[in-house]
Amino acid sequence: MRARLTEDGKCEVPKHTLEHTYTLTRKEWNHLHRSEREIRERKVVVIMEMTSFGIRPADSYRYLAHSAGGEEQVGHTMKDHMNFVNHEKIKNIEGDDAKTFMELKQKQEDEKTNFFYKVQMSEEGRLLCWEMK
Q1: DSSP letters spanning 2-66
Q2: Is residue 69 packed enough to be buried (19+ CB in 10 Å), middle (13-18) or exposed (0-12)?
């Protein structure tokens, strides 16, 4: 794109080429573009199984990279991998925390005659708020 200043002080674009005349990125970096990174369902199963066996996320990523023939063949980066595993762990912790809370409050209600609690749940089954007296 070229621009020039006209006599009245405004910018004018006499010619604009919409096609790229140069490479946008190096071919060896294509696997790093966000549009190219995805953790597919088949990999999700493998990653979750490895996590359940106690294999650390970094080690499971290295295993996937080795079996795929290099990091550029995995389909996602180490950071994507770590974020995915941590997100899955947090989902499990949140669910267990609510369940533990409910069990504790039910036990307290059974043991104490003057204890009362009320819980509001979301449509997804998540704990929204509670009230105790």
Answers
A1: EEEE-TTS-EEEEE---S-SS-SS-GGGGGGSGGG----HHHHHHHHHHHHTT--HHHHHHHHHH
A2: exposed
Distances (CA, A) of 11 to 19, 65, 127, 131: 22, 51, 58, 64
- For residue 23, pLDDT beyond 90: no
CA dihedral 53, 127, 103, 89 (to 10 degrees): 10
Which two three-digit tokens encode residue 104?
């504790």
pLDDT at 132 over 60: yes
Q: Give residue 18's identity as a one-letter amino acid code.
A: L
Q: Which of 40, 27, 112 is nearest to 72 (CA)?
A: 27
Q: Could you tell me how many residues make up the chain?
A: 133
